[in-house]
């Protein structure tokens, strides 16, 4: 057995215990984790300091360094979010569709944990705790495989969580961190079909594609968002400008930010200058179709087909003038990553057609795509945003970390 | 583009139309299919005759020949089941969890089709129609890849369905059959990530393993059932004997049949002869642990560890004497394929522990595992029995062939 196989077997054994340990025990473990994080700030900050020093040496950008950094206030924030997860309703054990069949069998569908969840992530060390406690609250064991840049931070956080879980009387192997941060360990995790029930990749498009295409373990695809805002001919133009400005510029690096603006031809000449005025506040680079350039003039670069496929993650926006709703929906359905799409309109039929025909996890009328988020949707917390159709679609909260089990009460029935 | 890629693209285009075509149009297509099957019996029976002739030449067993055969009565049965699917409630368009958020956004979760479903199957030609119409009712396009033994039958059935769908005004590419029945076409279907949303393999353990381990398209694992019946110390022994006899012998080739009998030591000497008396009616071969052999004598073969892992699919039963509930649950959770597991008991606490701790799609108290079936569970029809935890678990009916889409009604909200 390799080290990762042993870790898988230990997680599976822990998952069997978590399956039936009850909400009280899980909440006690979560609150113990919150306390332990607050009590061990120095240890966490020291480990994070080692990661930061390495990052500085390697010439990491200031923006990425900031994502990596942990300090007193950020650790308090992480501990707070753990307490919030403890306060959420536990989905496990809920039974629906229970009924008595004609033969007297009483059949119900009970929510149960998925089992062992593996998370492969590249991002900030807070994900280590956020992901672990959500999995734990839903009764799952979790195997974390974080990026090498944050390894010392992740390891310190995991050690603290494991000790707290043990102290609370649950198996510490409910949470573990893969100690090998080479590419090979990703491949090994993807092959652990005997131990891992679900694998969730969180990170850039390259990582996600690699995992989706190569994992033998079932995967939930997350995150890539090539989102569109379509300003239809009857739209309130001020609303349209505010929405595209918010969707593009409030946080361009996230997956629910807009990447392409589609504008109806009949309003393009009036609308595009209004939108540009707001987008210029952040020096947003526009890449437009010929009509866009004709209306807005020289500051706009010509858009290539490649631009329409791209999640820029930056202050860059592709723009296209379309002739009608049909062309807008066809464009969206061609280039979409099935994340979040919005129409701005005052036409009732257009709003309904957009909701019906656009194939995405979240489809908006007259609102910014930036709301696609577990907290904003009322799920309490999320472990990622699924862009696939199986199992979970859109923000994944506790419910999406569960499976079902049919329970059947009989009195000797045979078939 | 290869022929299969073209088929994928055509199915995807059809799926976009089915997504919004409405229940009435889908039901009209289903009823047209039922009529067309009845009207084209001669054509179907002629095509089936070609498959039967080839099967005879190749020396196929009588049992398999019977599974392949279509006749007047069987075609009527298939057409009837199509009408039953037409009569089921359409899950598409149902909206749940709709609420107004503090910022005024109205957010709901709407049931939508999965998109394009591919089914790879080895079994009887009726699967061609059953699977296609369930997918269609839930608004999905389907790509069928059946076994080469039934190719002429499958092709005739598919042609008739496509013509009926077209006649009813829906795109005929909603249903199509892969024309290449070599192993290579399975691999090609598994790689069609751009076109296929979900792949469901139906067949033997070898096919399912190959698909689960190699598909780039998301898979729902089905069917393999290494099911256990545990007769606990307080069980009604007559009930226990009837249940194991039914679970093993009523139809040994199916996935919800029992493969291993576990018996509590305290009742083994009384119970095993009672069970054997019934099992002997079908000349069931018993493979037992040493204690079983001691109790039942010479007719019982010694069980190997391999036997406890095996889905015999035949009148063969592994038997093991266990010391208590703990050992029984541990045995089940070690050897289970997570399909269906049953306890026979009169002890309340034992029944609850078995329901809680056994990790399977369907867990029974005092009933035969043979009830794990979409019809028996009240789903109306099923496309297979999922033994994985993601997306669907247990019998998969129409609801399990759907995904969700969040629909959001705003009034200019930005974040």
From TrEMBL, chains A, B:
CDD domains for this protein: ALDH_F18-19_ProA-GPR (cd07079)
Pathway: Amino-acid biosynthesis; L-proline biosynthesis; L-glutamate 5-semialdehyde from L-glutamate: step 2/2
InterPro entries reported for this sequence: Ald_DH/histidinol_DH, Ald_DH_C, Ald_DH_N, Aldehyde_DH_dom, Glu-5-SA_DH, GPR_dom
Single GO cellular component term: cytoplasm
Keyword Amino-acid biosynthesis among record annotations: yes
Broad class of enzyme this protein falls into: oxidoreductase
Pfam families for this protein: Aldedh
Keywords: Amino-acid biosynthesis, Cytoplasm, NADP, Oxidoreductase, Proline biosynthesis
Domain Aldehyde dehydrogenase span(s) in chain numbering: 4-279, 316-405
Gene Ontology annotations of biological process type: L-proline biosynthetic process
Enzyme Commission numbers on file: 1.2.1.41
Subcellular location: Cytoplasm
Catalyzed chemical reaction(s): L-glutamate 5-semialdehyde + phosphate + NADP(+) = L-glutamyl 5-phosphate + NADPH + H(+)
Entry's Gene Ontology molecular function annotations: glutamate-5-semialdehyde dehydrogenase activity; NADP binding
NCBIfam families referenced in this protein's UniProt entry, alphabetically: PRK00197.1, proA
Function as written in the Swiss-Prot or TrEMBL entry: Catalyzes the NADPH-dependent reduction of L-glutamate 5-phosphate into L-glutamate 5-semialdehyde and phosphate. The product spontaneously undergoes cyclization to form 1-pyrroline-5-carboxylate.
UniProt cross-references to HAMAP family, sorted A to Z: ProA
Protein family membership: Belongs to the gamma-glutamyl phosphate reductase family.
Protein name in the entry: Gamma-glutamyl phosphate reductase
The organism's taxonomic lineage, starting at the top: Bacteria, Bacillati, Bacillota, Clostridia, Eubacteriales
UniProt gene name: proA
């Amino acid at each position: 057995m390799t080290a990762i196989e042993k870790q898988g077997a230990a997680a599976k054994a822990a998952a069997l215990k978590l399956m039936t340990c009850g909400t009280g025990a899980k909440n006690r473990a979560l609150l113990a984790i919150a306390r332990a994080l607050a009590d061990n700030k120095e240890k966490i900050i020291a480990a994070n300091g080692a990661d930061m020093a390495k990052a500085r040496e390697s010439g990491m950008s200031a923006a990425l360094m900031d994502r990596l950094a942990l300090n007193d206030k950020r650790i308090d924030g992480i501990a707070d979010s753990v307490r919030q997860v403890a306060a959420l309703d536990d989905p496990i054990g809920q039974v629906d569709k229970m009924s008595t069949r004609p033969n007297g069998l009483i059949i119900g569908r009970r929510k149960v944990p998925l089992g062992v969840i593996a998370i492969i992530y590249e991002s900030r060390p807070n994900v280590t705790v956020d992901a672990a406690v959500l999995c734990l609250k839903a009764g799952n064991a979790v195997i974390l495989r974080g990026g090498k840049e944050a390894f010392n931070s992740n390891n310190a956080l995991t050690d603290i969580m494991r000790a707290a879980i043990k102290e609370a009387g649950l198996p510490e192997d409910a949470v573990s961190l893969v100690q090998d941060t080479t590419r090979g360990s990703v491949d090994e995790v993807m092959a652990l079909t005997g131990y891992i029930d679900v694998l969730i990749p969180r990170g850039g498009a390259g990582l996600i594609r690699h995992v989706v295409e190569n994992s033998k373990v079932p995967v939930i695809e997350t995150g890539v968002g090539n989102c569109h805002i379509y300003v239809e001919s009857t739209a309130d133009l001020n609303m349209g400008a505010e929405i595209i400005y918010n969707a593009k510029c409030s946080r361009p690096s996230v997956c629910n930010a807009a990447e392409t603006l589609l504008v109806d031809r009949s309003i393009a000449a009036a609308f595009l200058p209004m939108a540009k005025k707001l987008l210029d506040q952040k020096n947003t680079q526009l890449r437009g179709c010929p009509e866009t350039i004709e209306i807005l003039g020289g500051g706009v670069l010509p858009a290539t087909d490649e631009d329409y496929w791209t999640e820029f993650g930056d202050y860059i926006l592709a723009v296209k003038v379309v002739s009608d709703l049909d062309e807008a929906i066809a464009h969206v359905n061609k280039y979409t990553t099935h994340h979040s799409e919005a129409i701005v309109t005052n036409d009732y039929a257009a709003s309904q057609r957009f909701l019906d025909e656009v194939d995405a996890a979240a489809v908006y009328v007259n609102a910014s795509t930036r709301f696609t988020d577990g907290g904003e949707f009322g799920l309490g917390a999320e472990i990622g945003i699924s862009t696939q159709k199986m199992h979970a679609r859109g923000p994944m909260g506790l419910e999406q970390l569960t499976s079902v089990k049919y329970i059947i009460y009989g009195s000797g029935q045979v078939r």
